[in-house]
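Supplementary notes for students who missed Thursday's class. We covered one full example, reproduced here. Read the sequence, then the structure, then the short commentary at the end.
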Amino acid sequence: MPDVPETHRDLLDAQFATLATIDDDGYPQLTEVWFLHDDGELRISLNSDRRKTHNLEQRPECSVLLLDVQNPYRYLEVRGRARLEPDDGGSFASKVGSKYDSDLQAYDRPGDARVVVTVEPLKVHAVDMS
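Structure (token representation):
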């Protein structure tokens, strides 16, 4: 991932991230998500039937906030555009699930599908106000 200073790279392995999307009325929608820093990219597994997935399909502009929970004055914000791809067979969902010791597809309803969201960064803000 470009432009992430060494001082904030550890946040790419954090447990949680806040994903901000833009809803149909133009308002931000924020959701805590599980994610992976995978092959140098920030990726999220989402259920295709969720509002945040719909938001990204309509408006791919998004922001991901990675907060240092031990020091909330330190965080990394990645602003960019989301690229959505089908996760046929759920292989990426399984990869994310292994980080959290969970089966992401257990949260899906019958017939739901999963997508891989890759955040293509345009701006990276590393903040430390401590």
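Commentary. DSSP finds two helices and seven strands in the chain. The first strand starts at residue 17 and ends at 22. If anything here is unclear, bring it to office hours.
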